[in-house]
Amino acid sequence: MTTSRKFAKAVTEVLSPYVVLAVLAFVVGAWPHPERGEALWWAAALALGSCVIPYVVIVAGARRGRWDGHHVNNRAGRLIPLVIITVSIIVVTVAMGLTKAPSHMFALGLGEVVLIVVLGLITVLGRWKVSVHAAVGAATVVIVAILYGAVWHVLWPLVVLLGWSRVALRDHTVAQVLVGAALGIAFPAVLYPPML
Predict the structure, then answer these.
(1) For the segment 66-84, what is each residue's pLDDT rounded down to a tens digit?
(2) Contact 181, 146 (CB under 8 A)
């Protein structure tokens, strides 16, 4: 394995959706808000529902040979993992809605549900493997910039690096990365401003 490929693999793992969404949940939960304490509890629940539970189930399935790894690079094998992730996020988001969780946390959960459903529909119905890594990376930068200020747009080079890693590993084409990033930008821009 070349040094470039090793670096691309490290970037893909460190900035994987499992890691980024878990960190994002706590970054959003920590946003200065009168209900910050409650928001942090919901951040933990959302990290569990959108990252930890899906990761454990998908890794266990990959070890049993149900799919080709924890990133499920084979498009045809993505349906069941996408359903697992979607159901897990929906459960937490519905609980947030029913208990009137802080609106910025509910917006994050709702955004995750909408994004994963759209990515899933493109993958299953469109027969195209859009990059979940790029979508989550781009959405994260937009959400952090909306909540904490435009200075956080400084994170965009990490999204570019992440996109490069997915192409360098031949897990996605440039087009699949660009479409993923575009979808990641669109959803938080629509969901967050009305909820703040």
Answers:
(1) 877 777 777 667 778 888 8
(2) no
Tell me the C-alpha distance between 95 and 48, whole Å: 13
CA separation for the pair 185, 4 (Å, rounded): 28
- Record the pTM: 0.90
Question: 120: part of which helix (H) or strand (E)?
Answer: helix 103-124
Other CB atoms within 10 A of residue 190 CB: 11
Domain boundaries, the chain: 3-195
**Residues in contact with 59: Cβ distance below 8 Å, sequence separation at least 6, in sequence order:** 70
pLDDT digits (tens, 9 = 90+) for 144-182: 999 999 999 999 999 999 999 999 999 999 999 999 999
State the Cα–Cα distance between residues 181 and 192, nearest whole angstrom: 17
Q: How far apart are CA 23 and CA 117, in angstroms?
A: 21
Question: Which residues fall within 8 angstroms of residue 96, CB to CB, at 6 or more apart?
Answer: 42, 45, 46, 105, 106, 109
